[in-house]
Amino acid sequence: MKGVVFQGNRNLELVDFPDPTPDPNEVVIEIKASGMCGSDLHFYRNANALAAFGYSDASGPIIGGHEPCGVIVARGKDVPEKIAPIGGRVMNYHYLGCGHCHDCRSGWQQLCADGFNIYGATTHGAHAPYMAMAADTIVALPDQLSFSEGAAISCCTGTAFQALRRINLTGRDTIAVFGLGPVGASVVMLAASMGARIIAVDISEQRLKFCSDFGAQETINSLDCDPVELIKDLTGGKGADLAVDCTGVSEARLQAVRATRTWGTVCFLGEGNTVTLDVSKDINRKQLTLMGSWTFSSFGQQDCARYIADREIDLDRIFTARYSLEEAKAAYQKFDIGSEGKGVFEF
Prior knowledge:
Elements: E1 2-8, E2 11-16, E3 26-35, H1 40-45, H2 49-52, E4 68-75, E5 89-92, E6 95-96, H3 102-105, E7 117-118, E8 130-134, E9 138-140, H4 147-153, H5 156-166, E10 174-178, H6 182-193, E11 197-202, H7 205-214, E12 218-221, H8 227-234, E13 240-245, H9 250-258, E14 260-268, H10 279-283, E15 289-292, H11 298-310, E16 319-323, H12 328-337, E17 342-346
Parallel strand pairs: 10-11, 10-13, 11-12, 13-14, 14-15, 16-17
Antiparallel strand pairs: 1-2, 3-4, 3-8, 3-17, 4-5, 5-9, 6-7
């Protein structure tokens, strides 16, 4: 089979790999959908991205893609049938820790003190027709959801859902969302389903219009104005109750903090880069709660899928481009520009 390998320097290749077979505690799924995530761009752009994020380089070429969704076609000899029935529709929790420590048993394998693997980064991922994974990383896909929706939940939408849980969003709140890529668009869609008032901030008119259709009541192009002042104007001078930064950009992070009212909460979702804050002015004297949120637990992934299925949220709307694997080079060239919503490879 052929799989996508990120080479860095905005290049990728379709490389031949043997079809996977499961180890005793693994399953193999036939991939039906594999999402394109902003995190992929780190590896697409930078050949040393793993080292930059503090992970040791993997040996040999690695198949990219950490938003897998598909159907179980094989299982190892030690995997019970009731856990992994052949033909079962599943997502993948894309981290694998030791499986025995407190964090792993709590569903947070990416917090494993002994280290962890990331499917699609340090071990083979889903940009290929088949993928092997540990049986304890499969997450059931509700029948009401499409495979592409399951792929989105496997990272970007699941990440958005966890952030909204952490900040305790309610229908009483006004939330400012900075950065409207796939994660930010998911924040908008989910926040709208929860009844919140949403102020969406980006530099792309296309993405602002996209998220207006998802339920953002106000949109701000931060190239045209000071988003901090405009958010305060829209909230009677107080600022937003809550803010989420999905960009990882220093300036946007600072704007999110300064656009949030006294006693408000700000959540940083975007990875990488830094931000400089005046602790007294920006945090202490506003009684501000500032937190980070890194993806989600395996239980949170299941909760997100159930939430979307039970409320009949049309998550498929988040996709603006659907590709075959053979179109991978063109797909990532478009995604790299940042003008689209979310892309997905469908098999």
